[in-house]
Amino acid sequence: MALFKLHVPILDDIKTKGWRSALVATVDQTVERITAGINIGEIRSILRGEAPRRPNPRVKPHADGFWMHMRPTFFHEQVMSLYPTFRLGWLTTYMLVFETITGLFLMLWYTPSPDIAYTNMLSLLSNVPFGLFMRDLHRLGAELMVMLVLLHMLRTFVTGSYKKPRQFTWFTGGVLLLLTLFLSFSGYLLPWDQLALWAVTIGASMAEATPVVGREVNLLVRGGADIGANGLLRFYLLHVFALPLIAFIFVGVHYYKVIIHGHSLPPGAEKVGEDTARKVPMERRLYFLPDVMTRELFWTVGWLALMVFMVTWGGWHAPLEPHADSQITPLHTTAPWYFLWLQGMLKLGDKVFFGVILPGILSGLLFVMPYLEVGPSRRYADRRIGLSIAALTIVIMSVLTFMGTPYYGVSSSPDQEVLTTLAPQTHPGLLRGTAYDELPVGEWVASGWNNAPSQGLQAVLQLYNQEIERYADQLVNAKGKMSITEIQAGLKQVTMQVEWENNGAHASEPLTVYLHRDSAYEH
Amino acid sequence: MITRVALGTVFMVATLMIVSFTAIDEPARMAQFESGYHGRSVEAGAALYANNCATCHGPDGKGIAGRAPAINAADLYNGTRFKEIGWSGTTHDYVHGAIAGGRPRASAAFADYPQRMPTWSREFGGPLRPDQVNNIVDFVMNWEETALLEVVAEKPSDFVAVGLDLKDPVLPKGDVAHGEKLTQTYGCVACHMNPDMNVAPGPGWPAKYYSGGVSIAERAATRFTAADYTGNATSAEEYLRESILQTNVYVVPPYVANIMPKIYGEQMAAQDLADVIAYLQTIK
Where do runs of H (alpha helix) occur along A113-166? Predict the structure, then answer.
């Protein structure tokens, strides 16, 4: 008896059937194994758009394959048009995977240390091919993911899909909303620029307002009184490890619940109080292969094309401000846009009540909403109060978001406002964006913008003049001076000085900006 | 379904095309970012230089006699200074090392500079971050191009120093505009025209830069009559002349002695001194 016997079946087949048939049979078998049940003939039939045989051989991968077993074999055709899902859940899931992949690329060039993180960003942008592209995609993906999650939640509310038996699905969705926000927010700190440091400082001081445990939570997150090396490392580990892990677990739970309850039909498609999502009549079934899959791939590719377009020809770029500096607080620093409503609430009054207790109660209500609002009907006509509350909430949130911006309720001195408009600390602004040669050496005054020798300088002085006139009631007899000198080869010093009368006394406020020929802010 | 597949394929091809075009442009984009970032680094360095370095090395880097040497000077970039001190590295590394670590003690070779160069980088106990030190280095190195072209003007052969006396020689009539220029040349403005009163080592000249809110012209006109005045001046002109030449005779508190260099008696001609004094008396 041989200890070891090598048997290659194809050799037997070649002997019996000949080369051609044996090879075709082997390829066919291989394809069928890889697809967990679909052979070449069936793939051709799918591509030709033919209806499946009975029994449907295209459901086999759902039983035999790992990936496909997570997906239902068929959907109700009514949940497969744009309405009622708008593909928001699918796109959100896609964004989570997309962020993981682009994030892994960025991790290759990143070290979570205040000494080197910002330098890492610069070398990523200047020395890594597609470094800017990947960073832009990752950042854009993060913003879009927050939007998609919010819209997905809104859609679920509007169509009443949170109602029994899907309350827990909504609950896990709430957890995923929080996770998405914290994922995005924790990523904010990593570039270690001014935007990062101050947005996170604002966020962390909100956490500090929490009664009883605020100080401890704050210390735990920041890793010290101020955000430093410890805080950066903590945010990094939260961002790349802890939060994604929890998010993937909750996506699993969330999707499992979606599948066992089925996608809820449009509210008008079923009788009040009935849930027929799992009882799909034969003639209304849309099989995953090929209809649902091609739809999903279509949306995936379309969304990718949109994002790639935006970060290249569309000109969308992730911001990168100057190196983080805890000594310099930029004027008009804000939280990320999705936390602006919270910043707006803080302007209403007490930090603890408006910054922690009220938002805490509101988000708590959001989680348990499906268990409290138990009206049986999902139809729009029966839910006038609920839908009105949703509309009102959107309006209030928009107003609060506006109130969170520097345009509302922030009083700083008008002279500084004028100077900051021309040369902001948070983005380049008009002055830095003006071409080097368009800023001629000399002494200029804002009111004489009309006579400036170059178009670029004219625009700058005109804005200067406009801003001074805007605050004319506070800056009495104000004069805006601007002196431009070339202090080195290719380096200009622009000194602006706002002068005005303050109760009869002379007052002035200077600001000096340096501009290098190569700094290319306009790009 | 066919439409979806076709359109999806178009999207995919379009995406790949955009990515390919981006790839072609990547080397140029990276190079542009690098030069752009260098430009911004010089800008940041200029601001840091104005706040931290200009008080000793002068706003234009020409140095201030008695405080610190010139760094906007040909000998730093053409190697002559390095020959004298035995440095064999690059100018960039020398400048970086000098700023980051400072000097352990005052220079023995140059008795003109009694103060030691402070340590600036946080790595060695200084106040600035390493990236800020790099910014200053980029700013200083930006002088190289013009400094190498510069020809050092010799003092004219008929130069006669004004000396230290308050009355002799009698000063000619001063030229205000030239006086203002001289305050730049001699580096006076570094300490006396500094908007940040907490940083400036000397009293500001304009009323707005002086904690008492009074300009140098008004101070000079009244102070020599004050009860606690210990100097020898009997007029506003003499008070200014004394302050410039005999720097330690009377120092207004809280400023301290030995900060203002006592060198101008040898460096200035009578006309220069007259011009500066005339200019100072016009400052408001």
Answer: 117-127, 131-158
Q: Are B216 and B280 in contact (CB under 8 A)?
A: yes
Chain B contacts of A132, Cβ < 8 Å?
A: 29, 33
Tokens standing for A166? 């899907």
Q: Do B35 and A520 touch (CB under 8 A)?
A: yes
- Cα A467 to the chain's mean position, in Å? 33
Nearest to A222 by CA among A242, A202, A241: A202
Q: How far is CA B212 from CA A508, B191, B200, B215, in A?
A: 17, 16, 14, 9
**Token pair recorded at residue B19:** 């990515």
pLDDT in tens, A127-165: 999 999 999 999 999 999 999 999 999 999 999 999 989
| Separation CA B277–CA B269 (nearest Å) | 13
Tens of pLDDT, residue by residue over A217-268, are 888 888 888 888 999 999 999 999 999 999 999 999 999 999 999 999 999 8
Of the CA atoms within 13 Å of residue A383, those in its CB half-sphere come to 22
The secondary element (H helix, E strand) that includes residue A74 is strand A74-76
Question: Rounded CA gap, A19 and A11, in Å?
Answer: 9
Which residues, other chains included, contact A297 with Cβ-Cβ below 8 Å and sequence gap of 6+? B8
Most confidently predicted of A204-213, A304-313, A407-416, B112-121: A304-313
User: In the 8-state DSSP scheme, what is residue A424?
Assistant: -
CB contact under 8 A, B23 and A130: yes
d(CA A41, CA A424): 64
CATH placement of domain B2-149: 1.10.760.10
Cβ atoms of A443 and A483 closer than 8 Å: yes
Query: What is the torsion angle, in degrees rounded to the nearest 10, for the CA atoms of residue A10, residue A11, residue A16 and residue A20?
Result: 60
Residue B109 CB: number of other CB atoms within 10 A?
Answer: 8
Q: Which residues of B touch A488 (CB under 8 A)?
A: 42, 46, 139, 142-143, 146
Cα torsion A65, A67, A70, A76 to 10°: value is -90
- Which residues, listed in sequence order, are joined to residue A497 by a DSSP beta bridge? A481, A510
Q: Which of B32, B214, B30, B101 is nearest to A129 (CA)?
A: B30
**How far apart are the CA of A125 and the nearest CA of chain B, in angstroms?**
7
Span between the terminal Cα atoms of chain A, in Å: 78
| ipTM of the modeled complex | 0.86
Contact A397, A366 (CB under 8 A): no
CATH topology of domain B176-280: Cytochrome Bc1 Complex; Chain D, domain 2 (1.10.760)
Q: How far apart are CA B64 and CA A327, in angstroms?
A: 29
For B154, phi then psi, to 5°, come to -80, 155
Same fold, B2-149 and B176-280: yes
> What's the rounded Cα separation, in Å, for the pair A328 and B47?
13
- Best interface-test mutation with B: which of A102, A298, A437, A485 has the largest number of B CBs within 10 A? A298
pLDDT bracket for residue A412 (50, 70, 90): confident
pLDDT computed for residue A207 by the predictor: 79
Strand, helix or coil at A496? strand
The tokens of A471 are what? 């605050």
Q: Which domains does chain A have, with CATH numbers?
A: 9-72 (no CATH), 82-266+317-404 (1.20.810.10), 414-516 (no CATH)
Taking the domains of chain B in order of start, what are their residue ranges?
A: 2-149, 176-280
Q: From B141, which residue of chain A is nearest by alpha-carbon distance? A: A488
